[in-house]
Amino acid sequence: MPDDEGHPAVEEIELGAVLAALADPLRRRVVRELARAPEGTTRTCSSFALPVSKATVTHHFRALREAGLVRQVDRGNSRMARLRRADIEQRFPGLLAIVAAEDAE
User: Fold this and answer.
1) For 37-65, what is each residue's pLDDT tens digit?
2) Does the record carry Transmembrane helix as a key word (predicted)?
3) Are 93 and 16 a contacting pair, CB within 8 Å?
4) pLDDT tens, 13-26?
5) Over the range 7-16, which residues count as b (16 or more CB within 10 Å of their CB) and which as e?
6) Hey, where are the domains in the chain?
7) Topology of domain 10-100, per CATH?
């Protein structure tokens, strides 16, 4: 069952939802940047400078959160995102390495 912020438990992270989230190139870019960053890196959602409206950024991060790829935490008037690296590696070993190895688009 997802927690109060919409993060699914590790055992509830489903491959279909993860692949659907990663199908979008902008969401894949966010995951790729986080996967290439040092373990535990947390960034504001706006720091990714996605070329879309604020509402669309919110939509993309909600999709990533609901799929179980990122954990979001409110920090004042912004949201921070951190890759759920250990959880994804536990459920789908090697998936993040594949995403991180993809060339930037």
Assistant:
1) 999 999 999 999 999 999 999 999 999 99
2) no
3) no
4) 999 999 999 999 99
5) bbeeeebeee
6) 10-100
7) Arc Repressor Mutant, subunit A (1.10.10)
